[in-house]
Amino acid sequence: MNITVFGTGYVGLVQGAILADVGHHVVCVDLDADKIERLKQGIIPIYEPGLEPLVKENHAAGRLDFTTDAAAGVQHGQVQFIAVGTPPDENGSADLQYVLSVAATIAEHMERDQVIVDKSTVPVGTADTVRAKVAEVLERRGRRELGFDVVSNPEFLKEGSAVADCQKPDRIIIGTESEETEEVMRELYAPFNRNHEKIIVMDVRSAELTKYAANCMLATKISFMNEMANLAERLGADIEAVRQGIGSDPRIGYHFIYPGVGYGGSCFPKDVQALIRTASDIDFDAKMLKAVEARNAEQKTTLFQKIHTHYQGDLAGKTFAVWGLAFKPNTDDMREAPSRVLMEALWEAGAKVQAYDPEAMEEAQRLYGNRDELSLCGTKEAALKGATALVIVTEWQSFRAPDFDLINERLSEPTIFDGRNLYEPKRMAHKGFTYYSIGRNS
Ligand code: UGA
């Protein structure tokens, strides 16, 4: 099939490449000419395992192309994906200006019936708004005879495993009331619908809400565990034992119950906020979601609080080694990252930071490059040199078995503040470290 994807961010680019890889002919459209040029040369704007070869191979095979020419893009596809950003506006609602501008562009250039797919995470009711926008432009063009449908087809990929998630989806949600559209979408996704039925067809609004409900449920699990970790710390219990104890119940499960320094990234914080906002727009008080958000905001300050208490507020002039800047491993993304809350609080208190991350150094440079209080180090060992203590914010694999003797030697005090519970408290005590973790008594 011929497919057009508007937006070459995480969702659009991965989706475009995956669809091309199973044999569809995909054109990705973006306004950013520089980005499009680089993509044509196989230069990927984000760090995402497996994406670069996929883009290069499919581009070389002529199945995946990139353009800034929206008109040509619309002409190409029989299905048009909208996969542009929906950043939060100042009151927490998802800002739909990019989605609606793509909808208008599609309507401006379409010359045949079209299936328009909302792939971006958009509030319930957006498909109706997109439908109205397309109808309005067609009306203005005097082309009311052109038929179209707007489908909600949310994406569930995770950064860091986006390619694998997209290649082997748990489920494919298709929100449409039209049998014809359902058929088109079934054909499009047939290569991914193997082994067992993964396609779930529902009405548009339910599909839109499914996306938010999934992310909010996962965010709730995390905030719940962080609350339990705080309790465990104060009650003399060990959250790691508790985690295993409850995870063994299949109704609870082991996924997404790791306590830590709070969830970050471009999805959970934004989506929880947006659903709270959607609820308040219809005069519904989303009490649970507000609690999830509040717990998360507080959790992001937990490492700083532990550091502050340990040094009795005397942080001015001290230097801290920080391992991990990305909001989670296997990405260079620092959006809403707990590392930012930590570093900004340390700077505010007069401390300096020597930081290392396996992938997010460029991003850190872009965000904070000019600050004297931050040194970006080439290795995790270099970050330790002359630092008072080590603070671990992201659970990169390469941090799991470090050379503890070297850490001990390089830090002026052998103290570790671990926001991801990477090590065993008893073992750390045995090695002579003062070790702080999350929800464990060390
Ligand atoms: C999330 C969802 O997991 C995807 O299913 C969804 O498609 C995506 O948002 C989206 O809406 O686009 P992502 O934000 O890439 O994916 O990252 P996650 O792996 O879900 O992690 C989110 C945050 O939760 C991270 O900061 C992570 O450290 C934290 N987390 C995760 C915990 O603190 N504890 C856990 O047990 C799991």
Given this structure, which CATH class of the largest domain is correct?
Answer: Alpha Beta
Mean pLDDT: 96
**Could you name the CATH topology of the largest domain?**
Rossmann fold
Which class of secondary structure composition applies to the elements? alpha/beta
- The radius of gyration is 24 Å
Roughly how many Å apart are the termini?
58 Å
Which second-level CATH architecture of the largest domain applies?
A: 3-Layer(aba) Sandwich
Unreliable sequence segments: none
Percent of residues in beta strands? 5-15%
Helix residue percentage: 40-55%
User: What characterizes the major β-sheet?
Assistant: 6 strands, parallel
The hetero molecules present are: uridine-5'-diphosphate-glucuronic acid
Strand order of the largest sheet: 3-2-1-4-5-6
